[in-house]
Design brief:
This protein is an all-alpha fold and 92 residues long. It contains four helices and no strands.
Length: 92
């Protein structure tokens, strides 16, 4: 019994998140990043179709979006490179 009284209880160890909790939080944050990147990319496509932004601006946004997709490991990720200057975003 005396032994227990002499031990100092370090409660900070019990307040630390467990490794799997940290991973879950990382995955949730990455999923949110992907959602935001997709919304942002869609906005840029709309702006491009209205003639507000350049092809280069849209391509830069697409590159960022594809990077986040690859980082997340989204099974639907297309890893094809951004179209060359022939412009896959040509307006009809």
């Amino acid at each position: 019994m005396k032994l227990w009284k002499n031990l100092k209880f370090n409660s900070s160890l019990y307040r630390r998140p467990l490794p799997f909790q940290i991973k879950i939080e990382e995955i949730v944050a990455l999923q949110r990043d992907l959602e935001i990147a997709e919304i942002d990319f869609d906005r840029y496509k709309e702006l491009f179709n209205k003639g507000v932004i350049s092809t280069r601006d849209l391509e830069n946004k697409e590159i960022g979006y594809l990077k986040i997709q690859r980082e997340y490991g989204d099974p639907g990720t297309t890893t094809e490179p951004v179209a060359p200057r022939t412009n896959k975003y040509s307006k009809p």
